[in-house]
Write a structure and sequence with these properties.
With about 150 residues, this protein is of the alpha+beta class. The protein has a single domain, classed as Orthogonal Bundle (Transferase(Phosphotransferase), domain 1). About 40% of the residues lie in helices and about 10% in strands. It has three helices and seven strands, in the order E-E-E-H-E-E-E-E-H-H. The protein has a three-stranded antiparallel sheet with strand order 3-5-6. A two-stranded antiparallel sheet has the order 1-2. The longest helix has about 35 residues. It is flat. One of its GO terms (molecular function) is protein serine/threonine kinase activity. It catalyses: L-seryl-[protein] + ATP = O-phospho-L-seryl-[protein] + ADP + H(+); L-threonyl-[protein] + ATP = O-phospho-L-threonyl-[protein] + ADP + H(+). Its EC number is 2.7.11.1. This is EKC/KEOPS complex subunit BUD32.
């Protein structure tokens, strides 16, 4: 940037982050036909993308989701309670290059990939995030149908 930005108290701003518009509340999303199901699918797709990067949200609610009509996508926000997992790193070389080193390499592979019991906990958290999203959309749809049923004809 060729422009100098000043902050109160004469502090130079060295780095600046530009954020884009995330969208509007899920409640304001158009409800046309099977759009509710599409929103739920997009929300779960967003959560799974986060899970692939090793992030567990831990606070999945409709208040923490935004709908962007330009992309027809759902953006998840508010990562205050989120957990960042350290995923096991892939080995740089083959684990079993030849038969002579097979036993020691196999032992190292268990250390690198981790024990399956250690991986079950993040897996439970991932499924908990998905379950919370499905529950939130289920309640949202039930509330919407209750309002429709109460409306005078």
């Amino acid at each position: 940037m060729n422009k100098i930005y000043y902050y109160d108290h004469r502090v130079y701003v060295v780095h600046m982050t530009f954020l884009s518009w995330g969208g509007c509340s899920i409640d304001r999303a158009p409800r046309i036909g099977d759009m509710d199901r599409s929103l739920e699918d997009e929300a779960i797709r967003s959560l799974r993308a986060m899970h692939r990067e090793g992030v567990i949200h831990k606070d999945v609610r409709l208040a923490n989701m935004l709908f962007n009509p330009e992309t027809n996508g759902v953006m998840v926000i508010d990562f205050e309670r989120a957990l960042l997992l350290e995923l096991p790193r892939r080995p740089l070389a083959q684990l079993v290059p030849n038969k002579r080193a097979w036993k020691s390499e196999t032992m190292d592979a268990k250390k690198v990939t981790g024990d399956s019991s250690k991986r079950s906990r993040p897996s439970q958290s991932f499924s908990e995030d998905i379950w919370l999203a499905k529950t939130a959309f289920l309640e949202w749809n039930a509330d919407r149908w209750a309002r429709v049923a109460r409306a005078p004809c």
